[in-house]
């Protein structure tokens, strides 16, 4: 059962703002036939039947009440590259897919967030433009060690570093020394470090080998970034985390071998967690060959055996969070006949998560609670937002979405709320429909449409104890 607050003295029942009735409420420990009572943006009652007076009711009969998804990994690219996505489009697409909170990466916004001033600039923009709550990553690059304390004080949710070329000149990859020193500093500051774990030297070698063969198709590109590239980087990063005591989050782990390395490191008491992304759980290498540009990302999508093994790891609790790594680009950057030249990044913030729910539609009783953990509770916990976010329980922010399971329907470009209508999921059938999304008790997405008068997003910083 969702936890209940003890009431020591009887109080006059307050008039609630909203009661969500009739839904099946999903928490990591199960699915519960309970009602939620909301007041001033929070859940204040969880009970089988709420009799308090209320200003309004929301009928969730026949639907799941799922915790608002906390997506710790998006690239909305504003300021500087708003034409690639932007905070307004990105957050709306997130909300249309059941998300209530995003953590924006320090790139590909321009300038990237490498100091407190950069973070404040992006924060001010997001406070005007985002329709969901948000947190902001700072960057860890060679030469910005003395900016990390400022980033922490400005409220960065963590630091992101690239161990291979990011493709963005203003966001250079970290060399081993900068990563080590950065993690040492981050540990002192109480900041988590997230890494894009691909070994640059190995990626360069494998890429050169493919180019020498004059192969430029999707298959050649996949071969240019084999699992070994990821494993070498994970080994180094976890070793550094062990030595420095830094909290480490390996983003977009694409292979079960990568998960195994993280599991081993955890057994050695390294403070490391694993994120995978919806596309690694939904697509395989054959899909990449078929779909082309919309399915290009790094590390690349792996074979079917590995995709299925990632689901096993997820169910075994060895993958802690699932993010979208939503990283769109304009159509002209996604059209080269040479797969190596196509800008990488998958636009999955709107449909990736609901397709995970769809993949579990027939095993909802067992798997929806698991998804509530990896899409919301675990994320909030890892990033120290769990006093407010990630769980449908009394005292928490009223962030939730309503999920309907109906007849399968194909996803079309018209469904997309992203700036560019590019997605690897177009044409894919889904039984899941996100009908409503509420952020702090107010609708952002209602009855399958953008809600009018939606509130603006609030900036979130990790809670320090
Ligand atoms: Zn990313």
From TrEMBL:
Zn(2+) 1 binds at residues 73, 75, 160, 325. Its cofactor is Zn(2+). It catalyses: (S)-allantoin + H2O = allantoate + H(+). The keyword Chaperone does not apply. Its EC number is 3.5.2.5. Pathway: Nitrogen metabolism; (S)-allantoin degradation; allantoate from (S)-allantoin: step 1/1. Residues 64-444 form the Amidohydrolase-related domain. Keywords: Hydrolase, Metal-binding, Purine metabolism, Zinc. InterPro entries: Allantoinase, Allantoinase_bact, Amidohydro-rel, DHOase/Allantoinase_Hydrolase, Dihydroorotase_CS, Metal-dep_hydrolase_composite, Metal_Hydrolase. The modification N6-carboxylysine is found at residue 160. Carboxylation allows a single lysine to coordinate two zinc ions. Zn(2+) 2 binds at residues 160, 196, 252. GO terms for biological process: allantoin catabolic process; purine nucleobase catabolic process. Homotetramer. Catalyzes the conversion of allantoin (5-ureidohydantoin) to allantoic acid by hydrolytic cleavage of the five-member hydantoin ring. Belongs to the metallo-dependent hydrolases superfamily. DHOase family. Class I DHOase subfamily. NCBIfam families: allantoinase. This is Allantoinase. It comes from Lacunisphaera limnophila.
């Amino acid at each position: 059962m969702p936890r209940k607050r003890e009431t020591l003295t009887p109080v006059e029942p307050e008039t609630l703002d909203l009661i969500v009735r009739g839904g099946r409420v999903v928490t990591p420990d199960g699915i519960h036939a309970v009602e939620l009572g909301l007041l001033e943006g929070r859940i204040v009652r969880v009970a089988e039947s709420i009799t308090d007076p209320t200003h309004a009711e929301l009928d969730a009969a026949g639907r799941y009440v799922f915790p608002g998804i906390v997506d710790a990994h998006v690239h909305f690219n504003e300021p500087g590259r708003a034409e690639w996505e932007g905070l307004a489009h990105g957050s709306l697409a997130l909300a249309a897919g059941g998300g209530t909170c995003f953590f924006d990466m320090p790139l590909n916004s321009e300038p990237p967030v490498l100091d407190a001033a950069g973070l404040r600039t992006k924060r001010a923009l997001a406070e005007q433009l985002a329709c969901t709550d948000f947190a902001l990553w700072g960057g860890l690059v060679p030469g910005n060690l003395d900016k990390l304390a400022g980033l922490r004080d400005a409220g960065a949710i963590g630091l992101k570093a690239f161990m291979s070329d990011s493709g963005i000149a203003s966001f250079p990859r970290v060399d081993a020394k900068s990563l080590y020193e950065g993690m040492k500093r981050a540990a002192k500051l109480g900041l988590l470090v997230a890494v894009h774990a691909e070994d640059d030297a190995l990626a360069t070698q494998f890429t050169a080998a493919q180019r020498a063969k004059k192969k430029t198709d999707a298959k050649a590109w996949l071969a240019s970034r084999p699992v070994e590239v990821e494993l070498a980087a994970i080994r180094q990063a976890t070793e550094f985390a062990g030595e420095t005591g830094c909290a480490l989050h390996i983003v977009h782990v694409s292979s079960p071998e990568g998960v195994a390395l993280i599991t081993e490191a955890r057994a050695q008491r390294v403070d490391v967690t694993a994120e995978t992304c919806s596309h690694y759980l939904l697509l395989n290498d054959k899909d990449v060959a078929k779909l082309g540009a919309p399915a290009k990302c790094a590390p690349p999508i792996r074979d079917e055996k590995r995709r299925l093994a990632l689901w096993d790891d997820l169910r075994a609790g060895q993958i802690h969070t699932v993010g979208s790594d939503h990283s769109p680009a304009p159509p002209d950057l996604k059209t080269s006949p040479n797969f190596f030249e196509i800008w990488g990044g998958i636009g999955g913030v709107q449909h990736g998560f609901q397709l995970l729910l769809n993949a579990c539609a027939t095993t909802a009783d067992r798997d929806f609670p698991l998804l509530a953990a990896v899409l919301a509770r675990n994320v909030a916990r890892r990033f120290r937002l769990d006093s407010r976010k990630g769980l449908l329980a009394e005292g928490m922010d009223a962030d939730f979405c309503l999920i309907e399971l109906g007849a399968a329907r194909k996803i079309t470009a018209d469904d997309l709320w992203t700036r560019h209508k590019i997605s690897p999921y177009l044409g894919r059938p889904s039984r899941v429909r996100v009908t409503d999304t509420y952020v702090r008790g107010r609708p952002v997405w209602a009855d399958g449409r953008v809600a009018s008068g939606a509130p603006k997003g609030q900036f979130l910083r990790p809670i320090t104890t």
